[in-house]
Amino acid sequence: MNGKTCLLLILALLLFLSGCVSDTGRESSTLIKDVGSNSTNTSDNQTETEIIERPDNSIFLQSGFCACKAGKPAILGQCGTFCAGKDESDQNTTLYLEAKLGEEILLNSEFGNLYNWCNKAVTNSNSDSQTSCANPQCVFRLTDSDGDSVDLDLSNLKSTSNKFEVILNSDVEFDKTYIGKIVENQCSQSKSDSIQLRRISSFDDPGTLSPLKVDPVSGYSCLTRDARVDGASNTIFYDTGFKLHFYYIDFNQPPVIPANIKNVFCHDIARYGSIDNISYPRLELNPGAFNVWSVTDSRFYDIKIDPELGDVNGKIDIHDTIDTIIKQNGYSSGLTFNLFYELKWSNFPSEASGDSNSANSGQAPLGYIMAPFIDPSTNRSFCPKFADYTDPERSPAIQAMKDVVGVDTEGLYLGVKEPEAAVIEGELLIAPDDYIIVNETLLKQIWFYFQNEQAIAPTSLTEGTKTLHFYWPPNTASPYIRNSDQKLYTVRHPSQISNNNGSSGTFSTIQVPHDKKFACAPAGE
After folding, report:
1. Each residue of 111-149: pLDDT tens digit?
2. Is 432 exposed, middle or buried (0-12, 13-18, 19+ CB in 10 A)?
């Protein structure tokens, strides 16, 4: 065989092998493409299988969803205003939601909206198999903490909007927390992200079921001085002074002392000079002396419309809320007494105003405090802790406080300063009355009673049978030895005070507890 013949045979062999590879490739090729992409041109004997995926986790349920019945909220959440605009005659419990869609849906010409995602007949791919889904169906699935699910109807979806509504039927239990999501239930089991909701049996604004806002109260002192003018030199002398205590919240800080007032100061004049300034800290400032429930919490106002009276009912709304919770817990009668009352205290010395009718000289609201409870088995007063809210042996009112109070509380006590006087140039000067508020945590470290001229710490038994005292400013390291700068105060219940002069406050008339606490308030750190 010559060289030319060999070359021809080689070329023929290559052409044959090339044809075999090309034919095999055409017979076995299968094209899988994304929906909406341009088709690839193929020869007549090519086949094409189009697999359309229903995007998973590309639907995002928005926050701010609400459920309403008869114009009132039906789930926990800030829905009062939203539901007030709904039909009051509608007895369905309707959940209102909105979905945002991811790019896998929005940019897909087969879908583009929630309705198509739920109803479009597509072919789904599942590993090595392909399944046709001619009749997809979406449900709104609620799953509880035990893993039990309720599927709710979603047949009312619209192609013009991604907002939708779900009727919460009787299978959705009250006071149970659910995780909710959209699920395509027939073929793919593709789903949205999830939300959490809790259906409530009382149709109050769910904001009433969140813990009440707490404000810290700051204490400070002012010094009132007796001025004496020397006739020969026309010089003013201040021979003595007496301290008074005042309280305020940051929401209503005290004003400065006017420059023309010389006999009262509430700042460190040795450091800053005699002229007061808003930037100067108050004298002996004690931030967070105790806590109160905030006057800015709307539940301490009578705002909510009474469904029977059609108007406000003369009670602050927090009392209405607790009354409703008590009845929901199965008791025939609700709240039978006022649990909260307002605490007012002078936040500014009246002598400094120059006008006894000035608003600055009056008592300012600090916040709300709670009446102490009496344990019927011991007749001793106590302030509830969180464990009491879940104790079935406690009163219905305490059990109802779990969601709206939700914090440990402690007692507040009133201290009355011992009488003070001074003799100036033969004239007797009587100090004005002075009162301070001390929280239970601090007071129980420093209080005592006198026996045989000795200061003795009370026990749980003797605290209700002795007159108790403490020295102020406090010294917890050595509470029973009086320092030169300390004054003696006596623990008194407000009902035991004969007048409200000086820097005292106003209090509700309640039963005198065994240890003379006048209130319960949110416990400090």
Report:
1. 889 999 998 877 655 444 445 567 888 999 999 878 899
2. middle
pLDDT band at residue 19 under the 50/70/90 scheme: very low
The pLDDT tens digits of the residues spanning 234-288 come to: 555 455 678 899 999 998 889 899 988 888 899 998 899 989 999 999 999 999 9
The closest of 340, 341, 344, 342 to 435, measured between CA atoms, is 344
Residue whose structure tokens are 């460190």? 268
Between β-strands 47-48 and 30-31, what pairing exists: parallel, antiparallel or unpaired?
parallel
- Spatial CA neighbour of 344 closest among 371, 368, 364, 322: 364
Determine how many CB atoms are found less than 10 A away from the CB of residue 162. Answer: 19
| Residue 474 one-letter amino acid | P
* Torsion sign (Cα): 100, 102, 104, 107: positive
Other beta carbons within 10 angstroms of residue 486's beta carbon come to 14
Question: Could you tell me if 471 and 445 are in contact, meaning their C-beta atoms sit under 8 angstroms apart?
Answer: no
Q: Give me 2's structure tokens.
A: 């010559």
pLDDT of residue 465: 92
Which segment of 95-99, 132-136, 159-163, 319-323 scores lowest on mean pLDDT?
132-136
In this structure, what are the phi and psi dihedrals at residue 496, rounded to the nearest 5 degrees?
-95, 0
Q: What are phi and psi of 73, to 5 degrees?
A: -60, 145
Whole-Å CA distances, 130 to 28, 33, 133, 134, 407: 17, 14, 10, 13, 57
d(CA 322, CA 384): 15
Three-state SS string over 355-390 comes to CCCCHHHCEEEEEEEECCEEECCCCEEECCCHHHHC
- Rounded to an integer, what distance in angstroms lies between the CA atom of residue 289 and that of residue 294? 15
